[in-house]
Write a structure and sequence with these properties.
There is one protein chain. With about 140 residues, the protein is mainly α. The protein is about 70% helix and about 0% strand. It contains 5 helices and no strands.
Length: about 140
């Protein structure tokens, strides 16, 4: 299930981009004032850096390690699935925010670079096979 949601997340972002590129969705609709520019850049960088950092470091947090490293295999599997869904949701929020901001404003480059960072992070946040251990023994 987490793998399917991961690929669905990427498909939604790609569909939004394709619809914006073809003109079916509006583009460059955000205000070009200095306060709007500052707000969009802050939101773009904040969501990208916080979302990417949290998604990449999620399995290193003590609580998550404890839940995934339980002796009961069934409970550990459920915990792993739960945290993979959380990780997918976090990276999806960063990705979708930056896709929306990129098409909302063509006059700033920050969302473009943050979108690229979020897409690269998606490679490292892809859910793994359940048989493969996350934590080295």
């Amino acid at each position: 299930m987490p793998k399917a949601l991961f690929w669905l997340m990427l498909l939604i972002a790609a569909c939004y981009a394709a619809l914006s590129e073809t003109g079916m969705l509006p583009t460059d609709y955000a205000s070009s004032g200095s306060m709007a520019l500052y707000s969009m850049e802050l939101l773009s960088v904040g969501s990208c850096l916080a979302g990417v950092y949290f998604a990449l470091r999620l399995f290193a947090f003590k609580r998550v390690k404890q839940e995934i490293g339980q002796d009961n295999a069934q409970t550990a599997k459920q915990a792993r699935r739960k945290w993979e869904l959380v990780r997918t949701a976090v990276i999806a929020a960063a990705l979708w925010t930056n896709v929306a901001l990129y098409y909302a404003s063509y006059y700033t480059d920050n969302p473009e670079y943050c979108l690229l960072i979020a897409l690269i992070a998606c490679v490292f946040c892809r859910p793994e096979n359940e048989s493969r251990p996350l934590i080295p023994a």
